[in-house]
Structures are given as C-alpha cells and as structure tokens.
Amino acid sequence: MKCETHTRCAVILILVSVLASLPPANAAEKKDKAKPTPSQIVDSGSFGDFVKGQRVATETFKIEQQNGASIIRSQLKAASGSEADSQKSELDMTAKGELLRYEWNQASGASLSVIPSNDFLMERMTASGSGKPAEQPFLMPSTTAVLDNNFFVHREILAWRYLAADCTPQGSNLKCQNGPTPFGAIVPQDHISISVRMELVGKEKVTVRGTERELLRLNLTVDDVQWALWVDDQDHFKLIRVAIPADNTEVIRD
C-alpha cells in the first residue's frame, strides 16, 4: 500500500483489521493452528493529569492486539500516593470495535463489569464491602463506546475510531465529513449513557513540555463541554495532549 494511504492504514490496523498480521492459508498455517497469535503492542505509556498546573494523577496504559481482539489496560494512581484511590480498567473489543467486556476495579474493593447481553449492554456493580452486585441495563448496541471517568486512553480509542470511520486521506492531509460526528457512549462508573460529538479541526502548533510540535487537533464535545485532543499523525495518531478549559484540566503524555 502506497505511503499516501498510510494515514488510513494506520488507523484501520489499530481498530478494524488484523488480517495483515495473520499467516497465509497454507500448510504453515495448519502447522501453527494450535498456537495463539502473538500479541502486538499498538501503544503504551502514561498520561499526566494536571489541574491548575498541578499533577493530580498518572494513568499508565497499554493497548495490544491478540487473536483478533484489542485489549486496552489502564491503571490510575493519585499523585498523593494513596493506594486506596488507585484504579484499574480493562477494555476488550473485537477487531470491528465491538465490546467484548469492560472491567473496572478500585483498590478499596469496588468493582464493575459491562458485557453484551442479547441486543443491549449489562453492567454489574459491587460496592466496597458489598457481596451482592447490582445490575444496570443499557439499551445500547455492543458498538457503543466506553468513556469511563479518568481514563484518557479511552478517548484515544474513540479518536482512532472516528478517524477510521469518518476520514479519508487527501495527500498529506485528512478529509473528514462535514460537521461533528455523534457517538453513543457509556460511563460505567457513573452508570449512565451519553451522546458525544467529535470533529476534526486540523493541524496546529502546540507546545508540549516546552517543545513546539505540529499535531492534529480534534474537538470532543461532552454535555456541551468541549475537550481539545491533539494526536500525532506522524506516529500512529497517538494521543499527546488533552485540554479541558472548563475544568482547568490538562492531560499530557509523559
């Protein structure tokens, strides 16, 4: 595939297709049939979460593909060092972006999971010290995005999904559909469903850790609150910076 289509290929590789990494249908495939497909790390690292210029938390994450599925693991730790506030999440999706399972837990003992159930999603929650889980159904399809609290890697996944579905390369630039694209999403920790909108703004020069960089900006609107997301179109559209002016919040890749 020529370099002028690299933009779309990179995005599709992440969320839509892992076929290129599979062995051909021949004797070698039969020989290795019982072996699991080696995992491929798509992105990993950490985000610093800053409020009014002070780091309040660090999110460490890893995105990998294995056996045709995407697995997104994340851990959030407060800057104060309190282990009781630490959180972990795992989001498992098919190669088409359909939810297989989402799990979240807190060191204090609270936990929840979301799985597809027939034509809707079912959330099961267990509070700290409680043995019996509660259930919350969502009349939403398995393609619904998960945008849980405090996990910015989930916003990276949504940005990739938007770029793959609604944008096409034109030379060295991207051409996306006119106007914002709506997405249905759930926020498991809040036990709610929401509607969000994403739109491509274009390339901007942004200062990140004292260095000026040219990045691709996307606007994400959540409940009329606008988030600015900057991704690196020269490095697999990795999320580099997030700004939420209404909350005096900035997120920067470490």
Summarize the structure.
This protein has 254 residues and is mostly beta strands.
What does it look like?
The protein is mainly β and 254 residues long. It has a single domain, classed as outer membrane lipoprotein receptor (LolB), chain A (Clam), CATH 2.50.20. The chain has helices at 6-15, 27-31, 153-166, and strands at 40-51, 54-66, 69-78, 87-94, 99-106, 111-117, 120-126, 134-138, 145-146, 167-170, 173-176, 181-187, 192-208, 211-222, 225-232, 238-244, 249-253. Strands 8-7-6-5-4-3-2-1-17-16-15-14-13-12-9 form a 15-stranded mixed sheet, with helices on one face. β4 and β5 form a beta hairpin. The longest helix is centred in the middle third of the chain and has 14 residues, at 153-166.
- CATH C-level class is Mainly Beta
> What structural class do you assign from the helix and strand content?
mainly beta
How many extended strands?
Answer: 17
Sketch the major β-sheet. Answer: 15 strands, mixed
Q: Write down the CATH topology.
A: outer membrane lipoprotein receptor (LolB), chain A
Number of domains: 1
Distance between the termini: 32 Å
Taking strands numbered 1, 2, ... along the chain, how are they ordered across the largest sheet? Answer: 8-7-6-5-4-3-2-1-17-16-15-14-13-12-9
